Inverse folding.
């Protein structure tokens, strides 16, 4: 089926939780084909908690909406336990690229991807790979906060544990831990049974981050997570990103150059579906190698 091109940054196609609410899998578990890798559950069917993030490597990644090519052969590596910012003008393919990383892109009718996405060497598009395992390993936070509207704060976080069939143990303790890690516990501890949709926008976004963290992801993708938030809520998310990179690899799409400069270790600049330049964030903003990058970060276009 052929589909029209989807505008960059759209949230209309976000599944109700085929996002992979969170993540992770055991580095020592059997991967497809009998090898060990990060995309297979443990013997009891439950992934083990990750101690740190994993490397993601894109090789010749192309993406299509019907016949329209949106990504044109991206080669890019995201280092473990670092924050990589993806910048570029609207429509350049930023959101499409990160949706390909955890196989969200294929949920859009008529969309497809080619090339390889390697999670610590394991191809997430490989034969026999379970897409649910991919989305456990690689969580995603969208531009617009999307807590489950009919669920309480508690159940929003617990849903990831339930949906991924992880060994539950002390479910309440795991929910509390995820909310603490998302910097939200002190604000909601006495109202866990209230609807998650009743929180402020910034709190809802941290609730969605807690939902991902509950199942111990190794990578978290963030698609303009602060674009709808006020400056105070944005600051809290940025502080949280700095803390979270100690345990996960983070990729963040942003139109905010100042935000990229504040939170990212490395920054990649995209234009017209292609990767123009990637490097240490300070260098990208002060001494880029490509004149197109300089023009973009200095506001001459975009």
């Amino acid at each position: 089926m052929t589909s029209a091109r989807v505008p960059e940054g759209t949230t209309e196609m976000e599944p109700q939780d085929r996002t992979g609410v969170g993540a992770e899998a055991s580095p020592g578990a059997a991967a497809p084909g009998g090898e060990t890798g990060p995309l297979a559950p443990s013997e009891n069917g439950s992934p083990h908690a990750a101690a740190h993030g994993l490397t993601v490597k894109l090789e010749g990644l192309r993406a299509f909406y019907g016949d329209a090519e949106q990504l044109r052969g991206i080669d890019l590596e995201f280092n473990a336990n670092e924050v990589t910012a993806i910048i570029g003008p609207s429509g350049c393919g930023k959101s499409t690229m990160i949706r390909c990383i955890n196989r969200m892109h294929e949920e859009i009718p008529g969309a497809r991807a080619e090339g390889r996405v390697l999670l610590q060497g394991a191809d997430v598009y490989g034969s026999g790979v379970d897409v649910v395992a991919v989305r456990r390993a690689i969580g995603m936070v969208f531009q617009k906060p999307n807590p489950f509207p009919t669920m309480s704060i508690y159940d929003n976080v617990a849903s990831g544990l339930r949906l991924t069939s992880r060994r539950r143990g002390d479910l309440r303790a795991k929910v509390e831990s995820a909310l603490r890690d998302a910097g939200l516990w002190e604000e909601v501890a006495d109202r866990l049974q209230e609807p998650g949709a009743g929180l402020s926008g910034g709190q809802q976004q941290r609730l969605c981050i807690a939902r991902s963290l509950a199942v111990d992801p190794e990578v978290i993708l963030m698609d303009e997570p602060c674009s709808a938030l006020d400056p105070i809520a944005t600051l809290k998310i940025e502080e949280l990103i700095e803390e979270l990179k100690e345990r996960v690899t983070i990729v963040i799409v942003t139109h905010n150059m100042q935000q990229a400069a504040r939170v990212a270790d490395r920054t990649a600049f995209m234009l017209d579906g292609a990767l123009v330049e990637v490097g240490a964030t300070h260098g990208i903003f002060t001494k880029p190698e490509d004149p197109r990058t300089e023009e973009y970060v200095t506001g001459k276009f975009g």
Summary: The domain at 32-53+81-89+130-297 is CATH 3.40.50.300 (Rossmann fold). The chain has a mean pLDDT of 85. The longest strand covers residues 68-78.
